[in-house]
Amino acid sequence: MAVSDENSLGFRVPTEDIINVNAVPSTYKYYLFEDIELSAMNTLEKKVGDILDKQQKILWWFRNKVNKKWYSIQGWHKYKIRPDFIAAKKTGKNELELVYIIESKGEHLIGNPDTVYKKKLLDVMTDQKRKNDIKAYQTQIAFEDFVINDKVECYLIEQGKEEESLRELLK
User: What residue ranges do the domains of the chain occupy?
Assistant: First the structure.
């Protein structure tokens, strides 16, 4: 659960992406890329993006895509999970403190087997990381003056609780 320059071991945020041009330009201040494809986001995802962008401790965030080039998690089920958002919390010195992997779920999906599985997987990952049971095997980054930060936590955010959940995480 860290960024690595070795494709087989870690995740690299894509350096570019092709998006459909929006009729209305993005007003997000902390979105990692120049623009966001708003038409690809549902109402809940737009709300989560709005909340993330307004948090005082947000360093950057982006909408993860359902694409092989973007971030995914292989759990114990056959198919990979592609969480909705990746967000970075900053320290008081505007440095990277913690990276959040966030999956958002609508009220109608809470309690179904897929959502229960995803929540359990994200909880296990966060628990294992906090216990130091997930180890970094490769930490060389090709960026100058870049210090690796493998502090990562994973959360499932439920519709109706998104505001309070995200505020709590980013306080």
Answer: 38-169
| 52 phi and psi angles, rounded to 5 deg | -55, -45
- Residue type at 136? A
72's CB contacts (< 8 A; 6+ apart) are 80, 81, 82
Over residues 98-136, the pLDDT tens digits come to: 899 999 999 999 999 999 999 999 999 999 888 877 665
pTM over 0.85, yes/no: no
Could you tell me which CATH class the domain 38-169 is placed in?
alpha beta
Strand order in 58-63's β-sheet?
A: 58-63, 85-90, 96-105, 152-158
What DSSP assignment string belongs to 74-119?
--SSSSPB--SEEEEEE-TTS-EEEEEEEEEE-GGGTTSHHHHHHH
Integer Cα distance of 166 and 130 in angstroms = 19
Are the CB atoms for 105 and 159 separated by under 8 Å?
yes
- Token duo for residue 92: 């008081």
Give the Cα separation of 32 and 61 in Å (integer). Answer: 6
- From CA 34, how far away is CA 36, in angstroms rounded? 7
Amino acid in the structure at residue 165? S
